[in-house]
Model the fold of this input.
Amino acid sequence: MARRCTTPFEREARLCRVCRLDPEVEGLRRCSRLVAESPPMQEVLVRAARFARSDASVVILGESGAGKEVLARALHANGPRRAGPFVPVNVAALPAELLESELFGHVKGAFTGAVADKRGLMEAAGGGTLFLDEVAEMPAPLQAKLLRALQDGEVRRVGDVRAFTADARIICATHRDLARRVEQGLFREDLYYRLKVFTLRVPPLRERREDVLPLAAQLLDAAGRPEVRFTRAAARALEAHRWPGNVRELQNAITHALALADGDEVDVEHLPEEVTGRAPARPAADGELCTLAEAERAHILRALEACGGRQAEAARLLGIGRTTLWRKLRDHGVG
Ligand SMILES: Nc1ncnc2c1ncn2[C@@H]1O[C@H](COP(=O)(O)OP(=O)(O)OP(=O)(O)O)[C@@H](O)[C@H]1O
Ligand SMILES: [Mg+2]
Done:
């Protein structure tokens, strides 16, 4: 393992002369096209470059759309397991029973519908990395099973008596305050400590405004429109916005702008109204009370906006079920 740079002088000596970044940090950035111009994001990368070399679990915290998954991929791609698979699984997307068989696999006949043996994602991630997205939502019985797997290094497929060796590095992410979930008794404390050997916090975009324009440039590039430029006013609007939906919201704003702009120049009028501050983001100002239904409709729309239009995410943010959100959207004549 490379020696840690302890003094500013040593650190300075290791920095690449071109990009002024630690070569390992630069590696982390290049492989995944991770934009990190701002000091807070560079700090994250410096820590991440060290964690990448290890096999221990990492918990990545950060708001929705902030870039937790890109960072997880960069950790994998810069670690000793880079030749192995990176297997993402969204823990919140599946009901408990399905998630168990998805993660750990099952044998034929273990339950109705189990017509053949099936490998779980944990097994599939052997030699590589298992990325447990939205880990805070993991149901309690599965938390227990995951803890056993991590402690013993073995897992059993559902319905199987044999065990196989679990050799996946675990990287988790959540937009929730995981320590608080532990306090509330919603997440096992022993699993929490087993997982959070290393912690990375991806700062929200509003705390690293220096990243906004470089990210926008990369998103234009990814959209096949690298020649597009922002007018000064548009660039100012992008930098000034609070970006509640973070990079994903920025991605949507760029898509919006590209659709509206005729030539190679994006101006303020091409940006979404929420970004330029011309939309009524709040139901009504003090003094002009709106109805409860109007307030609910506006609040739901803001939540959807913050989640980049993803209903499952918005439902979680609002603390209601997906079906309830769907019903409310229909009742409010949205979508
Ligand atoms: N620093 C970054 N550099 C380049 N692209 C980024 C960066 N951060 C995020 N993105 C892009 O923004 C989008 C959202 O990022 P990502 O999926 O990693 O967020 P997330 O934190 O996992 O969100 P969620 O909590 O909603 O799952 C992706 O398309 C990703 O490629
Ligand atoms: Mg994600």
In short: The first helix runs from residue 8 to 14. The chain has three domains: 18-203, 207-279, 284-335. Residues 1-13 have pLDDT under 50 and may be disordered.
